[in-house]
Design brief:
alpha+beta; conserved putative lor/sdh protein from methanococcus maripaludis s2 fold; four-stranded antiparallel beta sheet; OB fold (Dihydrolipoamide Acetyltransferase, E2P); 4 domains; six-stranded antiparallel beta barrel; Elongation Factor Tu (Ef-tu), domain 3
């Protein structure tokens, strides 16, 4: 009986050993490689380069005062639409004390001269009426009186302009009322009532009271690297993606490429400008960041394959086409444009061919 059990144990050990050897042998044998296949397909291929920038109004201006003073009233708010000539703010003049004193002194001197001229005129006029003197002696005093009256009026107007910003003869405070020079939307009002402002002159740009822009005409301003600028030209179409409006792409027409590059972060960048085609559904705010895909070349509904399927040998391009199950042959193909993922196939394969995937 013991001998029987010993034989059974030996048989079991031998069976386990044989099974282990068989398992290890099967695991060590290389598995047959099964390649997947794909087919060519029809699609649109766009070869493009990318420019980053922002969308801004074509015509954006800063309204500045023509006189220095204090902001007395502001009649517009940001986002409001204004017309050309509309009053947007009023400036209260703060007169220069030296100029004010000189103007007051001029008025006093003109008043004294006018009184003297009037006395002389009255005296000569009485003598002329009594026929004591000839008319030729009266004419100079008449002219002197008129000149004195004109000088007095001019001195008073000058004083009023310095003190109030408006003269008696002008009829309106044109230089204290700030008016819009274009029709458009108010983008910003950087000042408040009570702020001091400086007039625009040859030595100072002046204080900006409001910024106004025509929002019906927008342009994309961006920059292109010097390695890509040689591939683009005026008239090319841009596909514009605005960060704040993800669901919609806009189109723009390239209208300007800067003739001079600017160095930024070690690379030469060229500024471009493109006219944006707006729609009625979306309101584009000034300064939206945007990315423009500049269409260098485009093919619609062409036969294409994934570019990763290509084999390159010397100056030839091949793909591996299945002739029998898991049997492939190299086939020479002629390609067209590529977008970096898909590439146009001009000759060599058809839509029905099974092409070996790589990797």
């Amino acid at each position: 009986m013991k001998k029987f059990f010993r034989i059974v144990v030996v048989i079991i050990v031998l069976a386990i050993f044989a099974g282990t050897i068989g398992f290890l042998y099967s695991k060590s044998r290389p598995r047959p490689v099964v390649f997947e296949t794909t087919q060519a397909f029809y699609t649109d291929i766009i070869r493009k380069t990318v420019a980053t920038g922002s969308v801004v109004p074509r015509n954006e201006i800063e309204i500045k005062p023509t006189v220095s003073g204090i902001i007395d009233q502001i009649y517009v708010t940001e986002g409001e639409h204004v017309k050309a000539g509309q009053v947007i703010a009023r400036v209260r003049i703060v007169p220069n004390m030296v100029n004010l004193n000189a103007a007051e002194s001029r008025v006093n001197r003109a008043k004294i001269a006018l009184e003297e001229a009037r006395i002389n005129f009255n005296r000569q006029e009485q003598l002329f009426e009594r026929q004591v003197i000839a008319e030729s002696e009266v004419i100079p005093v008449r002219i002197a009186l008129r000149n004195a009256e004109e000088e007095f009026q001019s001195a008073e107007n000058n004083l009023q302009l310095i003190r109030d910003g408006v003269s008696r003869t002008s009829g309106a405070a044109t230089n204290t009322l700030i008016r819009s020079t274009i029709e458009g939307m108010v983008l910003s009002v950087p000042v408040e009532i009570g702020h001091s402002v400086i007039e625009a002159n040859n030595f100072n740009a002046g204080t900006t009271i409001v910024t106004i822009a025509d929002m019906s005409e927008m342009v994309f301003r961006g920059k292109v690297d010097e390695s890509e600028v040689g591939k683009i030209r005026e008239g090319m179409e841009l596909i514009l993606n605005i960060g704040a409006i993800d669901a919609t792409n806009f189109t723009a027409m390239l209208e300007h490429i800067s003739p001079k590059g600017v160095q930024e972060s070690g690379a030469i960048q060229f500024e471009i400008r493109a006219a944006v085609k707006l729609d009625q559904e979306h309101f584009i705010r000034a300064g939206y960041s945007a990315t423009a895909d500049i269409v260098l070349e485009r093919r619609d509904s062409v036969l294409a394959i994934q570019e990763s399927l290509l084999l390159f040998e010397n100056d030839s391009i091949y793909v591996e086409v299945e002739t029998e199950p898991q049997v492939y042959e190299k086939r020479l193909v002629k390609t067209g444009i590529s977008d970096g993922i898909n590439i146009e196939v001009l000759e060599g394969i058809s839509e029905d061919d099974l092409i070996k995937r790589r990797g």
